[in-house]
Every structure is written in structure tokens, then in C-alpha cells.
Known about the structure:
This protein has 717 residues and is an alpha/beta fold. It has four domains: 4-69, N-terminal domain of TfIIb (Single Sheet); 80-152 and 351-548, Rossmann fold (3-Layer(aba) Sandwich), CATH 3.40.50; 160-345, Dimethylsulfoxide Reductase, domain 2, CATH 3.40.228; 594-706, Barwin-like endoglucanases (Beta Barrel). A hairpin with an 8-residue loop joins strand 2 and strand 3 (34-39). It binds ligand MGD (2 copies), iron/sulfur cluster (SF4) and molybdenum atom. Pfam families: Molybdop_Fe4S4, Molybdopterin, Molydop_binding.
Amino acid sequence: MADSAALDRVITAPLSSVTAGTATHCPYCALQCGMMLNQDRDGAWSVSARDFPTNKGGLCRKGWTSAALLDHPERLTTPLVRDSKGGPLRPASWDEALDRIVAGIQRIQSAHGANAMAVFGGGGLTNEKAYLLGKFARLALRTGNIDYNGRFCMASAAAAGLRAFGVDRGLPFPLEDIPGAETILIAGSNPAETMPPIMQYFEAQRARGGKLIVSDPRRTATAKLADLHLALTPGTDAALANGILNAAIHAKLIDPIFIDERTTGWPATRRSVASYWPDRVERLTGVPARDIERAAHMLGEAATAMILSGRGPEQQSQGTNNALAFINLALALGQAGRKHCGWGCMTGQGNGQGGREHGQKNDQLPGYRKLDDPGHRAAVARVWGVDPDTLPMPGMPAVAMLRSLGQPGGVQGLLVAASNLVVSAPDAASLSARLSGLDMFVALDLFLTETSSLADIVLPVPQWAEEGGTMTNLEGRVIQRVQARTPPPGVWSEPRILSELASRLGCTAAFPSEPAEVFTELRRASAGGVADYAGMAPDRLAARDGLFWPCPDESHPGTPRLFLDRFGHPDGRARFHPVERRLSAEEPDDAYPLYLTTGRVLTHYQSGAQTRRVAELQDAEPAAFVELHPDAARPLGIRPGMLVQVSTRRGSVTLAARVTADIRRDTLFVPFHWGDASNANLLTIDAVDPISRMPELKICAARIAVAPAEAAPVAAS
Ligand SMILES: Nc1nc2c(c(=O)[nH]1)N[C@H]1C(S)=C(S)[C@@H](COP(=O)(O)OP(=O)(O)OC[C@H]3O[C@@H](n4cnc5c(=O)[nH]c(N)nc54)[C@H](O)[C@@H]3O)O[C@H]1N2
Ligand SMILES: Nc1nc2c(c(=O)[nH]1)N[C@H]1C(S)=C(S)[C@@H](COP(=O)(O)OP(=O)(O)OC[C@H]3O[C@@H](n4cnc5c(=O)[nH]c(N)nc54)[C@H](O)[C@@H]3O)O[C@H]1N2
Ligand code: SF4
Ligand SMILES: [Mo]
């Protein structure tokens, strides 16, 4: 694993080295680092760093190499269709491809009803594209079944934020507030690898004497920087948070004035943590009682403290509760609703924030409005020029939708835009089979991925540098992405594709195909909503480093800090929620004695569809691996570098072993950036959180053994 080396790779460019080009943002994660896209005299494209508040001139390796995909030889530049199931994909004209899609939609919907067509979107799409996808599903397809990959990513933190604060904005404060926090607890996130330039903020915090606590079953590159590492048993986050709160109560670190003035529900939460004594929590979590007490003191005695949540506690069948338990802790300590304080979630995808605000989530309308709220339906229907009663009601969330593919009464036709589901969704083997068996599967992508290569119709789309649009970063800051070059001939933008399909389907609502027109409409549709973009005129976005929502009118400065005066519930108060620790859906047992967790490494992004195609990144980290502790490896005869087989009740994968003392003895870690035989999601379970419907990507029971390929020569000798 990359450890301290990860940090060395955050290359901070002196501003004098920045060349002229187009000022834009990285295509990958939610930090949305500022960069310049440059073209040299030979026409080759390259990237250089640019000073922007989130990255301060730094970029990670993925950002630096992102231009490599623009002219990649495997890029799709023509629609592809398949003449029969199982037959090969062949190039087709746009006319033929769109005709086939329209015929498929009509066939499926007349046989099975409107909801038999479904749409699956992605948090990498611009706000404009996410907005249009939601509008297309509701008005042109008239289906309630639209959801997106944020269900695998942000859903638990979003559900917890909505419940506790009445508003879900990943970070309710800007990154610039981080250095002013005396203590920071990072719960299950590894930003040293997942957002390297952000580490400048944590370094500044440390330079001012601040303290860092990290909870993670692994001693990650981030945990190595911490003053206190809580190496908890996977799945025990709620117990840990309750234990810290219990210790804080006993140490009299609770803030009764804040609780009284700004919250509701404390007595029930106080009672609920009474049984979480530190020594009991030590038995539940494996974290020493004295470290639990130390964490309580570090957070409770600080004048200002933050708790930052990552996918570790969230991607669980109790992800919402885990997030709520940490929110309880922040509220009880009075570490919220003030500058340099608060709970926040580090949103992951480039537009993971905006992507969940404008309607590609099953229950949502633009502006973070709710599809089942009559007032919200009426407001958006007015902008769309339709009768509110024609809007469908919420359909299935992602995992339920994917389980229903091809089932009686389920989804028979699917359009996927910007997700490589076959690599990134849980329990991948059964998903591939269901996708291949659909009446019609349409994929919009840049490449033939593990997913789009299963589609009946594949449509090529532009890349980030070839289209304008807005993205909302992890801080809730809306920024502009500008067009720096024209797309290859033959590639149509998503707005153009959706607009053309809508009109061929006979939909009379307007589907603007220019991003600027779409954004104007989005601003109107979001006006008055929670995520209000109405005041975000493009020239205002361009003149500043973006604007934070809500920004209701053109004289409004935007809202970097959401909860300084009041929280988002009608009474202005934050709500406590009592949380009991529950077991994960599948705990280790005799047959599968280890925890399997999954996540990321620095060099690859998500399903790897993009970064596995960048030679420099692929050379640096060419294949999947499994991390395990020497004490787990030794009795099984596993030596570093050996091929091993990791198995769960869903499947097996063969990987190289990385033996390291930086992981718990009872835990295996496999990154999920690779497909085919080393796809981590062949192993994962599709159990979901009952509130957020987030799948349990972080925990299942597994076993490990030397792979037959390695064992064979030994047996022969
Ligand atoms: N290099 C890189 N950067 C990325 C991405 C990428 O794919 N690659 N993707 C982006 C996206 S979309 C996202 S969502 C973010 C994700 O960013 P992170 O949340 O930082 O990433 P993960 O590696 O998924 O998970 C974080 C940590 O959770 C730990 N963990 C596992 N199980 C548990 C548990 O039960 N409890 C706790 N507390 N921790 C646990 C893992 O050991 C891991 O170190 O990264 C973004 N940035
Ligand atoms: N086991 C395990 N599984 C996980 C996770 C985990 O921690 N463990 N993390 C989950 C998380 S947090 C996330 S966010 C998901 C992400 O997983 P995916 O949803 O698979 O995300 P990407 O790999 O980014 O796939 C994006 C796809 O869209 C294409 N693309 C890029 N830009 C565009 C565009 O503008 N338009 C279109 N149409 N296509 C585009 C890319 O080529 C790529 O194929 O994975 C989840 N899966
Ligand atoms: S941290 Fe994220 S936004 Fe910044 S360069 Fe890396 S991938 Fe791009
Ligand atoms: Mo994510």
C-alpha cells in the first residue's frame, strides 16, 4: 500500500510554472481541484496545477494524468448496436441507434408499463446532465425508476444529515475552516489517498497545534498522521461513537447550554448510551477503553472540534445509524453550529453533491425537493410546464432496482449513464447475468467498460474537457467547468441525446441541449428549494471561486457556513437520534472467519474504467491485491506476493497477497478498482441500510487460502 509515499505524490506546483491554457477542474473526485488544461504545438494535451481554494496549487497523480484519456485510442466515437443477444456490437448511425432505443422503450412500456424502463445515473455527471436525466425519466419515460451510483456512496451520510440537521450538504462549512479546529476526528476516511491535496488543510491544522484522531480498521496513510488511531473492528462504528459519548458524559464534557438552545431529543440519546461503558465498548470494537476515553477528552476539551465522515462507517447496513451516532457526539459536545466546528461528510465523486440535488435520485426533484411532497411537485411541474399529477411517484432505490432487472413486475429496460456498475455494484456476478438478460440495455459511456460492453446499444459521449457545465464540490461550492476543446466527430453530448430521444418519444416538454440553457432552467427549478441555485448567474460563478448554495438571488453572497445561526429543521434545532449498535448483515463465522472490507488506493479511481486506461497509473498499480496481517497469513502459509484466493458466500477472486501489520488481524482489505476475475464486488453482499438503502460494501465474512495455482507445485513436490 502507498503510505507516506502517498503524500509525496501531492505535487505542489509553484504558480510561476503554470502555463497559459484553459482554467478548469479535475474530472475525478469531489475536491474538484483547480487545474489548467494546456495544448502544446504538436496538439498534445496536458494538465498543470492551478491555485484554487480546495487544492491550493496541488494535484494528485490522477489529476496530473487526466488529459491522457482525451485522445485515448479506445475512446468510443460512434454508436454501437447488437443485432441479437449474445451477438457482437457493431457500429451504427445515430439515427439507427436512437430508433432502436425508442422502439425498445415503446415495446417494453406497452407490455409492462412505464416503470419497466429505468435510468441509472452517476455522481460524475454535471449538474446540468443530472438535472436533464431526472427530467427525462419523469417526463419522457414517465418512470419513477431512476436512481444513481450515489446510492453506493453518499446515501447514508445524506440520510443522517437530513434527519439530524434538516439539510444534507456534505460539508456544511468550507475547507478553509479545517485548520481552525483544535481536534478533528476522521471517521473511516483515508483522504491521504482519496483526496491528497486536502491534506494541506490537515497539515495546517497540525501546525497550529491541532490534534487528529482517525478511526479505521487499517493503519492507513491518513491514520499514520494521527495522534490517536482507533483501529476498530469493521462494523462497530456506532458502538465506538456511543462509547466516546458515554465517556464524555462521565468526564462532564457535555455542553448543556448548546444542547438546550440548539437541539432536541437529548434525554433519550443520553439514556441510550448509558450502557456503552468504555470497557464494554472495548469488547465490542477492539479499541482500548483508555483510547475511547482519550478521544472523548480530545474532542470534548477542545474549544473547536470537527468530525469528518467517510465511506468506512457509511457503506454499511447500519450506515445511517453510524453517521447519526457521530452526529450525536458532535451535538452533545456543542461542537456544531459554530465556526471551525461540526460534523461533515467528505463527498466522493466529482459531482457527488450536485448529483444528489437535482433529480437523479429516486425520490427527488431539483433543488433537493421531494417527489412525494405535493408543494414540491407543483413548484417543479410549473417550471417544466406540466400538470403535477403527471409526475410519477418515487420508484426503487438502486439496489432494489438492480435486483428487479428482468424479474416479473421489475425493470425490463435500463439506460445507464456514467456508471460502471458491473465493477462497482455489490454482488457483481448476479448483476452481470441480470443485465445481459434485459429486454434492452443502453449504456452511455466514454469507453467499452465491463458494463457498457454488455449493453445492446452503446452511445459515445464527450469527456469533461469537451463540454461546459457546473459541478458542486464536497463543500457545496458550485463551480464552472468550461469547454476547452471540441468532442471528436461522431460524439453527441448527453443533453443532445436526451433532447433527441424525448422528442422522438413524443414528449412535448422542452429539453434544452446547450448546458448554459439547461443551467438557466435548473436555477429556476431549484428556486425556493433547499439547494437553491437561483442566484448563481454564470458570470458570478466565473468571477469568484464558485458560490455556495443556497444562493437565492443575484445579490446573495452564497452560504459557505450553513448552520451558524440555525439548523435546517423548521424549529431551527438539530435533532438527536438514539442509536443502538447492531451487527452487520454477515458477521464472520467458522466457515468464513474474517471480515472483508473494500475501498480505494491512490492511483485508481472507482471502477478503474478511466484510470486503468492511463499507462502511468496502471504501471504504478497494475492489479488488485488483498491486504492481510502477518498473523493471519502465517498459519495459512501465505507469504508476501503469493497468489491467494479470497472467498465469500457470493464468489471467489484470486489476488496477490500484501502482508502488512497495518491492518487488523481479523480483517482483509481488497480495493475495488479492477474488473473481471479480480472484481472485489464478486465478493460483497447486497444487504442494505433500511433508511438510506446503501449497500454494505464495507463488510462481509470471508476466508482466504493460498490459491490452487500456487499450491499445485508444492503438492507435486
Ligand atoms: N484514489 C481515489 N480517490 C478517490 C476515489 C477513488 O476511487 N480513488 N473515489 C472518490 C469517491 S467516489 C469516494 S466516495 C471517496 C471515498 O473516500 P474514502 O472514504 O476515504 O475511501 P474508502 O477507501 O472507500 O474508505 C475509507 C476507509 O474506510 C475504512 N473502513 C473499512 N471498513 C470500515 C469500518 O467498518 N469502519 C470504519 N470506520 N472504517 C472502515 C477502510 O479501511 C478505508 O481506509 O474517495 C474519492 N476519491
Ligand atoms: N466494493 C466496493 N464497491 C464500491 C465502493 C467501495 O468502496 N467498495 N464504492 C462505491 C462508491 S463510493 C462509488 S461512488 C461507486 C462508483 O462506481 P461507478 O459508478 O462505477 O463509477 P466510475 O468507475 O467512476 O464509473 C463512471 C463511468 O462513467 C464513464 N463516464 C465518465 N464521465 C462520463 C460522462 O460525463 N458521461 C457518461 N455517460 N459517462 C461518463 C466512465 O468512463 C466510467 O465508465 O462505486 C461504489 N462501489
Ligand atoms: S484530489 Fe481529486 S480532484 Fe484533486 S487531482 Fe486528485 S482526483 Fe482530481
Ligand atoms: Mo463515492
